[in-house]
Amino acid sequence: MSAFALAFATEYKKYMKAHKVRQRQIAEYLGFTEAYVSERVNGKRAIDTNDVDALAALSGTTGRSLMIELARLTKETLRQPVSETASVASQLEKVIGKKIQVEKAAYRDENKQAESGRENMD
């Protein structure tokens, strides 16, 4: 999926949380399974207009208004500079499904000394 589609899914999920809309509610509204909604909310499949319309109806707005708002927020998110480390960590998190604490991971790296060129050459 494109960077825009992933960022859009993130904003969709944030909007759901802010308006206390659960995946189950969207699934029921659409007549699909929670797995269907989960794949879209978590960026595994693209969110479509039906998904936006469902969230809009459940949060008391129109599909058009919500689409415009989510697109605006997504555009802002994509304009923010991202460090190379944060970008790589974010991509890894999506693959392994766990939050990576970069600072702690670097601190515990057994190869850190060897990679710095200061390894014990005995």
TrEMBL record:
It holds the Pfam family HTH_3. SMART domains: HTH_XRE. The lineage of its organism: Bacteria, Bacillati, Actinomycetota, Actinomycetes, Bifidobacteriales. Coiled coil: none annotated. This is Helix-turn-helix domain-containing protein. It comes from the Bacteria. CDD domains: HTH_XRE (cd00093). It comes from Bifidobacterium longum subsp. longum. One of its GO terms (molecular function) is DNA binding. Residues 13-66 form the HTH cro/C1-type domain.
